[in-house]
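Risk register update: the risk that structure generation would not scale has been downgraded. Supporting records follow, first protein first.
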Amino acid sequence: MFESWKSSLQRKIITIRLKQLSKNTPPPEITADTLWHNIDSVLVIMGMHTAGCPDPVFNRLIERFPEATILALRLPGAPITVTDAVFNDPHLKFSPLEHEDVSMLGTIGTHLRERLTGCHATLAIDLSLTFDPLSAYICQQSGARIKIGFARPEQELVFNYQIAPGAGGVPDDWYSAMARYIG
């Protein structure tokens, strides 16, 4: 019960912090000509609201950027929803995020900061189907040139590109739409 309350409070604080940071530093404008150039490191964030099977996104990243390093961060409580084939792929590294990696006040801890700067992500993808302030915040703080997530009003200042796969549908349809967008 206490952990649930603590997590809820942390996400509310991070939402406020994210809004402030996003207003001060909106994502850079990227043109279609330069969008997919020089992608050598990818950060994928699997948040609390990752559902279904995001395999199409991971498979497309591996096909499109075979030389890129792909780090998948799984937030506390986020389900592992990928197949064994994707989970064991040598191109991917799955890493759980610990509760202490982000403080109650929404500051990123040293361990997570080292992982984000060490990854040198040029592309960050948030797989949360609904607004997850923690995954959006990590995406925003990743330093990636390109930030992609699903279209939600709360996230318009976080992502360069928002995928809007249409009303309804199952999560797998949303991940397929994102995979098509990646190319």
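Supporting record for the second protein:
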Amino acid sequence: MKVKSICIVGGGSSGWMMAYALYKKTPEIQVTLIESPDIKVIGVGESTIPYTTRFIEEYLGFDEKEWMKYCNATYKASIKFNNFKKSKESIYHPFWSQEEASVEGYTWAVKKRLSPDTTISDYYSKHYLTYHMSEATKFEKVEGLSHAHHMDAEKFGTFCKEKLLEIDALRYIQDTVVSVDTEGEGIKSIKTSGGLEISEDLFVDCTGFSAILIGKSCKEPFLSTEDTLLNNRAVACRVPYTTESKARELEPFTDCTALSSGWAWNTPLWDRVGTGYVYSSKFLSAEKAEEEFRDYLSSRFSEDRIQQLEVGHIKFRGGSYESTWVGNCVSLVLASGFVEPLESTGLALAAFQIKSFISSLTADHTFNSLARQVHNTKVRDAMSEVHEFVFLHYISTDREDTEYWKFISNEQKVPEPLLSRITTGGSEGSKGSVSWFQEKSWECILLGFEVPGQYTSNLTYNGILIDGAHRDSEAILNDIEEYLAPTEAAYIEKVSTLTSSYQYLKDNIYDSDN
């Protein structure tokens, strides 16, 4: 099929990202974007991973200082998980350099096996510079070291929008879609409340959880993941900084803290902290969730600061449509599906879908059934791996202090594909055409959450089977420490020279802004 025109239904971060990407990569295609003035935009997330950063810089070509300042963005070096495995324990998913990626955690796993009292913080301390940055609330861009961002996702959509409207790069319509006329598997035309009838070669569904095109009109089957990822609600708000708190609270990591029936996030932007509680309605009512969330905020930020804050309640369903490209209808996160935001993958998945779709078009902007099916397989595999990776953060918990955690600890079923990944070694056991998370990411979580498998049993060191106490234990431990300690010392020295995350942002992005 030849694509001369595309209509994007819905704005938000994903819709405007798609529009800008089409302008950059396929400027010959005529693009229309319809955005309803009556629908409140829900961004796909304020916390990102390095994939998103690379997409913005390399694919969209935006200058970091310009877009960060517009979107109140900050730098992010890692994700921190508190109280998931057990109370008062923190586990990290740090970002890394290629040099760090080449140092396997298997050696450290041998140390842990021989010295069970060794804490997981020792692993992070000896393998990741970003761990030390996070612990010290410091940051600096280091050549070769991956980083990500916290951002106002709604503002990022507006940033793309203003760039496009400034150069008159698309047809922009503010109106509400009221009906969709389908033909075969695809869409023939859409009608708006203003009386417009729009018929294009291809339609992109960016209508969020409503999924007006892919779900309600194309009637594509939805595959739920709520049997494994239980959370399906969120309550959220924005917490302004005080003059005294900003430098301290502007942490270079996303903080995730497990609560009674889910977890709370904190994403520090330049102008405020975005925070919310993702929970399961099977174990907690909306009223009780808001009460618990406010108690959490009071303990974290003080009661005075949160008393007058308004909170919003969000309903979502975990899972994805069986195919995210049906006929001439392509859908993007959130309309294509959603995995809870524990690993900050929302914007990254949208970016991945955009790149996959645009690469599906040939040089003369045509596509066929094969291209569509390849895209669907790639997206399906990516969504599946994100789902399984996030699930890992729960399934090895030692907590049984609430009904939610007791259920996960004792009754939760593990998806068969995840069992295969664990037993075959993380990303090496991935199915399909994509491995979304690199081996190092799997290593961080498998070690941090002590998932049974390659890092906990049948360990060998220089040909010696390590099974608990060994006659050569002391010599092996000394050998391992001699190998790992210099890197840790270098990290500590490097971080001692850095300024705070707040000061680095102030000096390099926000200049003289307060």
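Residues 233-315 form a domain with the D-Amino Acid Oxidase; Chain A, domain 2 fold (CATH 3.30.9.10). On this basis the risk owner (M.S.) recommends closing the item.
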